[in-house]
Amino acid sequence: MPLVSSRTRLATLSALTALGAFVSVGTATAASPQLNGSWAPFDRCPVDAPAMLAADGLDQAPQCVSSSSASGSIKLGNTTVVTGRTNLQIGVIQNADGTNTVVGPPAGSLIADSATVPGGLLGLMCPSDIPFITDICRQLTDANLNKITATVESVGTPSQFDQIAGVLTDMPIVRIPVRIHLQNPFLGSNCYIGTASNPIMLRPSNLTSPDFSVERFNGDGTPNEEGDLSRLNILGSTQTDKTFAVPGASGCGLGLGLVNGAVNLKTGLPAAAGKNSITLNNTQTYLTGLYAPGVAAPDAGKVFAQNWHSAVK
Length: 313
Prior knowledge:
This protein is an alpha+beta fold. Helices cover 18% and strands 33% of the residues.
């Protein structure tokens, strides 16, 4: 990292401190509608996406998938962070040839609670013999300045969804491109691990066997053993992934990247596959679609979307 003059360091530190008032914690998302009955887990399903609406029910069958976990952990290089709630939702078009097409919601497929990084900036990059970083370390007497939050964000549409893997163990269920947003006044607002062009690719699989059951319901979500829609419930599994690589941090330090090196050094990034892991506890996964091929054909996608909207409370 190049040396930075004292005047530049002080000006940058002042700007970073002022920026802290504007750094938000977590990812702001528009409120999702509440859905009735068996539709409830699918409040972000992209039923109105053109590809979903075009599904005819014969060659393409529209489905919604939702998977949530209340807690877990993620290890990136040398750092482990305890995570909160995560929710993944996608639309899936099952093709007659056995392949599928994944459709992501407009606001992103994965939404996750922000987590606190243990030790904050003091643990992440102090002590340091880099002059600019040393100046930051001297100011970290305020707990609010020291705190770092990390938020997992979607940076693309998931792919390679495997419905059968969802009820088995040790088989990747879906491929999810994400980045980690690190937030702290000194890091600026654009500090990320992973980017849209170089994301972290998660491929979770069931570590333990889930319980599963099937239910049927009417278009408005009301339970009905003879309803036109069905829901597969896949519950209680621990999901893990230890196969993903993690790139180095970027954009840390008021967009100038002045802190990238310190973050990478203490965190152990970039980290090759095998040095990172994610665990999702007690996952609750649901998949819904029309009960049988040909139901509502050739307008299955449109009818599916109408049913979803009829369930909004």
